[in-house]
């Protein structure tokens, strides 16, 4: 029987590209998001908002009835937010944590019942290099992805006796609708950060527009699906590997200096 792969965020970007790629390679793919892909696709699809626990439970029942198990869960659903921390309303912070952290937790929690039915279950969480390198004016995005890295590591240890492996993939800039979908900075009177925020966002958006094609992430995910042993965290592309290496070995003050020069 083909491996059964559940992919959240499959209507767009990394999730969609991965779903199409794996489906072409004869994996049984189930895509999941709040809306259907806007392009033609040849895999199964369930509409589900990952912030809604009852919708997730129903989705898992539907998958159980049809497939009985999940071999690989790819948590790709996510959103971005930009703006100064001081100017961000709590409701907007809750929104991003509801999707990127609590939603990912809820889908994983309920999917685990079916992942246990696989002989070699795998969970691949799409984090971001921004989890390790905190970005100014995207602070809450970095916080949410840092949570996913911690979630990944704790879960990996908890699930080891069940032969379920967990990893986080930390992409850099990828050219997807993520840029367009990012919640934009909030206009406030007497904004002290105005120009700095705009400059920073412009740079981010330009980097993303010139970023890697999502197919590269899809191919990397496939490489890890085939691997016997999953790494804990990985990025994609030489330049991002170098950034992670420097971030690890340079003094933090130096790292923050460069981040400030680029995005601050
Ligand atoms: N693009 C980048 O530069 C980049 C870099 C590093 C990491 N990432 C991460 O990669 C992942 C995928 O991003 P992307 O670039 O592919 O962005 P994208 O094109 O905007 O796709 C986001 C996906 O998440 C789904 N989604 C959002 N909220 C949801 C919810 N409440 N319930 C279910 N699905 C939801 C969206 O579908 P619906 O709107 O139809 O629900 C969509 O399919 C994200 O976790 C992102 O943080 C992206």
Please write out the topology.
Blueprint: E1 4-8, H1 13-24, E2 28-33, E3 44-47, H2 53-67, E4 72-75, H3 90-115, E5 122-126, H4 139-159, E6 165-169, H5 178-181, H6 194-209, H7 214-226, E7 233-234, H8 238-249, H9 252-263
Parallel strand pairs: 1-2, 1-4, 2-3, 4-5, 5-6, 6-7
Helix pairs in contact: 1-7, 2-3, 3-4
This protein binds NADP nicotinamide-adenine-dinucleotide phosphate (NAP).
Descriptive account of the structure:
This protein has 264 residues and is an alpha/beta fold. It has a single domain, classed as NAD(P)-binding Rossmann-like Domain (Rossmann fold, 3-Layer(aba) Sandwich), CATH 3.40.50. The protein is built from nine helices and seven strands, in the order βαββαβαβαβαααβαα. The chain has a seven-stranded parallel sheet, with helices on both faces. Strand 4, helix 3 and strand 5 form a beta-alpha-beta unit. The radius of gyration is 18 Å and the shape is globular. It starts with a strand and ends with a helix. NADP nicotinamide-adenine-dinucleotide phosphate binds next to helix 1, helix 3 and helix 5. The site of NADP nicotinamide-adenine-dinucleotide phosphate has 31 residues, from helix 1, helix 3 and helix 5.
């Amino acid at each position: 029987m083909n491996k059964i792969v559940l992919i959240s965020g499959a209507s767009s970007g990394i999730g969609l590209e991965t779903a199409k790629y794996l489906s072409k390679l004869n994996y049984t793919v189930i895509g999941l998001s709040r809306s259907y892909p806007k392009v033609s696709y040849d895999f199964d699809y369930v509409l589900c908002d990952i912030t809604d626990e009852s919708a997730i439970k129903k989705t898992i029942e539907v998958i159980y009835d049809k497939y009985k198990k999940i071999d690989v869960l790819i948590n790709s659903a996510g959103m971005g937010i930009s703006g100064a921390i001081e100017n961000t309303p709590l409701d907007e912070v809750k929104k991003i944590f509801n999707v990127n952290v609590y939603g990912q937790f809820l889908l994983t929690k309920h999917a685990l019942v079916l992942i246990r039915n696989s002989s070699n279950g795998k969970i691949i969480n799409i984090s971001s290099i921004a989890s390790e390198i905190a970005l100014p004016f995207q602070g809450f995005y970095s916080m949410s992805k840092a949570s996913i890295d911690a979630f990944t590591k704790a879960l990996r240890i908890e699930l080891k006796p069940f032969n379920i492996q967990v990893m986080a993939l930390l992409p850099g800039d990828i050219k997807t609708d993520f840029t367009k979908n990012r919640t934009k900075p909030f206009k406030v009177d007497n904004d002290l950060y105005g120009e700095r925020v705009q400059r920073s966002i412009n740079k981010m958006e330009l980097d993303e527009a010139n970023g890697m094609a999502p197919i590269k992430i899809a191919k990397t995910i496939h490489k890890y699906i085939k691997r016997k042993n999953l790494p804990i965290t990985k990025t994609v592309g030489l330049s991002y590997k170098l950034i992670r290496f420097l971030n690890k070995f340079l003094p933090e003050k130096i790292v923050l200096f460069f981040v400030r020069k680029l995005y601050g």
